[in-house]
Specification:
The structure holds two protein chains of two kinds. Chain A is mainly beta. Helices cover 13% and strands 50% of the residues of chain A. In chain A, strands 1, 2, 3, 4, 5, 6, 7, 8, 9 and 10 form a ten-stranded mixed sheet that branches. About 5% of the residues of chain A have low confidence. Chain B has five helices and ten strands, in the order αββββαβαβαββββα. Chain B starts with a helix and ends with a helix. Classes of the chains: A mainly beta, B alpha+beta.
Chain lengths: 149, 205
């Protein structure tokens, strides 16, 4: 009995280890940052893919290269361009969500060192289940339209 | 048919033909705009501001160029760069005609946007862009003139704040007459199409 439950525990733990070695449930890709002159805040964009069957949300962001990072949403509803801070961005089960110009973005403030096009910016996003998703965002010129030309 | 009646009939025919061709001419002179035609509904380009080189400028300084005016501010990391990038791509697509176009980026954040900050900002997008700054009163008057608006949002507590602002793009012909209005979601194809027409009006006059 004892041996059997030990064996079961072993199988379960191996199963768990194998599961952990799989791709993470949420992946961040195609990330880029629009670099503006001086110390102006920069917008960061990234696409999240949620492979799990659980609806999650993105609740925070931080970057070692910036003093402050905040999740914002822009809108031009009613002809007024405005920006608001958001606490949580829904990430549907088995779905994806893009932070893209004119919508959700991570606003990166107070760069610790001058950021120039070609630099790689690390941003860690926090999910509603406590998991953290590291993302690498490519620094792009101010007038770039996306992660690549 | 006597010669005089024949002459009169010919005259009527010729006149009719002339009227018809004149009408065709007038139809050609009315461009088929794809953006919103605001001719006669908004005032001519007129302001007294400071450009990004620190020089005082007025609307008349941009006579001879098609002016594309947009209100925004440099601490705007998303919507303003998106619109300025789109305008940059549009001017590149326009080709040589883009030399007759100027983007006028008017700051709605006089407290933070100096000519130097504006200079670095607009040039990061397009060399044909001009940054314009002025007193709060001067910028408010300009916004009001074009039925635009902007509001400084409350401080976030760290000294930073956002400015909500009208996102419309205004197009003036080379004579400084307001001609077209677009939203940032207007298609690039439509803006390129209308800028080709606007710049060709300019070269004809």
């Amino acid at each position: 009995m004892m041996a059997r439950s030990l064996a079961l525990a072993l199988i379960l733990s191996i199963g768990g280890a194998a599961h952990a070695a799989d791709k993470p449930a949420v992946e961040a890709k195609s990330g880029w940052v629009r670099v503006l002159p001086g110390n102006l805040p920069a917008g960061g964009y990234v696409t999240f893919e949620n492979r799990s069957d659980r609806a999650l949300s993105i609740v925070g962001a931080a970057s070692p290269q910036y003093g402050n990072a905040m999740i914002h949403r822009s809108s031009t509803d009613g002809g007024m361009g405005r920006m608001e801070m958001v606490d949580s961005v829904p990430l549907p089960a088995k779905g994806s969500l893009a932070f893209a110009p004119g919508g959700y973005h991570v606003m990166l403030m107070q760069p610790k060192q001058a950021v120039k096009p070609g630099d790689k910016i690390v941003v860690t996003f926090t999910l509603s289940d406590g998991e953290t998703i590291p993302a690498t965002l490519l620094a792009r010129p101010a007038n770039a339209s996306g992660p690549t030309d | 048919m006597t010669p005089s009646i024949f002459r009169r009939a010919l005259m009527v025919l010729l006149t009719a033909a002339a009227v018809a061709s004149l009408a065709a001419c007038q139809r050609e002179a009315q461009p088929e705009w794809r953006l919103n035609d605001v001719s006669g509904h908004l005032p001519d380009l007129d302001f007294k501001l400071t450009d990004d080189n620190g020089n005082p400028v007025t609307g008349a300084d941009y006579k001879g160029k098609v002016a594309v005016m947009y209100f925004g501010y440099t601490h705007c990391p998303d919507v303003c760069p998106l619109t300025l990038t789109q305008l940059h791509v549009i001017l590149d697509r326009l080709g040589p005609a883009a030399e007759n176009v100027r983007i006028l980026f008017v700051s709605v954040d006089p407290a933070r946007d100096t000519p130097a900050v504006m200079h670095a900002y607009v040039n990061a997008f397009d060399k044909r862009a001009v940054g314009l700054v002025g007193s709060q009163a001067a910028v408010e008057a300009l916004a009001k003139r074009y039925r635009s608006a902007f509001t400084r949002e409350p401080d976030r507590g760290d000294g930073n704040y956002e400015v909500s602002h009208s996102s419309a793009i205004y197009f003036f012909d080379a004579e400084g007459k307001a001609r077209l209005l677009a939203t940032p979601s207007a298609s690039q194809d439509d803006i390129v199409h209308d800028l080709h027409l606007l710049t060709s009006l300019e070269t004809r006059s």
